[in-house]
Known about the structure:
Layout: E1 9-14, E2 24-28, E3 36-38, E4 59-60, E5 63-67, E6 77-78, H1 80-93, E7 104-108, H2 118-123, E8 126-127, H3 130-138, E9 144-147, H4 158-169, E10 176-179, E11 190-191, E12 193-198, E13 206-214
Amino acid sequence: MYGGGPGPGISVHKCQQNGDSCNQLHLEISNHTGTHLDCPYHFDSNGKRLTDYPDSFWYCEPAMACVLSKKPEPGTLLSKEHVAEAIEAALESNTELNPEEVQALLIKTGYCNLRSSEVYTNQSPGIHADMYTYLRDKFPELKFFGFDLISISSYMNRDHGRISHKAFLANENPILPIEDMDLRKLNAPALVNILVSPIFIDRADGAPCSVWANIP
Length: 216
């Protein structure tokens, strides 16, 4: 959990061994737990909520991924200078991919290899607010920006993290972050498509999600 906060609560609600009719668990969980997406309402009271989007919004084609050649230092705020080379390399390796049509982008920083560590929860890099402008200019149709960092906001620089969240979410053309992705098995720069599958909580500001992709 971000900053080492409380994780999900899981308890036994019913148990046949105790004479109940069935086995059942009780879950208590933040909607920003594990791999999850943020909706504009998370930082904009007038922004869209989870169930404001049509079904077609969750499917993205084409989509792309890139892998940074060097893992950034803890607490770094990732900006264009950190990702542009990897993005251009990914586009060059797939000449049929038109950046003006890309609907989802995944960036692998290497921090997914530290998911079980305190470094991941408390010292992960964050995303600089200026990244929004770069991504929106580069990918005018981009709907989702996913990454293997626990949050768009580095716990080491939470003030700027709030600014970054607002840059991505509180505007007329938001890009929805998908935070805390496990990208350890992702090595290919090209993705055919992506399906984002959130837990559909009515009017929520975000939700845990699964992300499905076809890799060529």
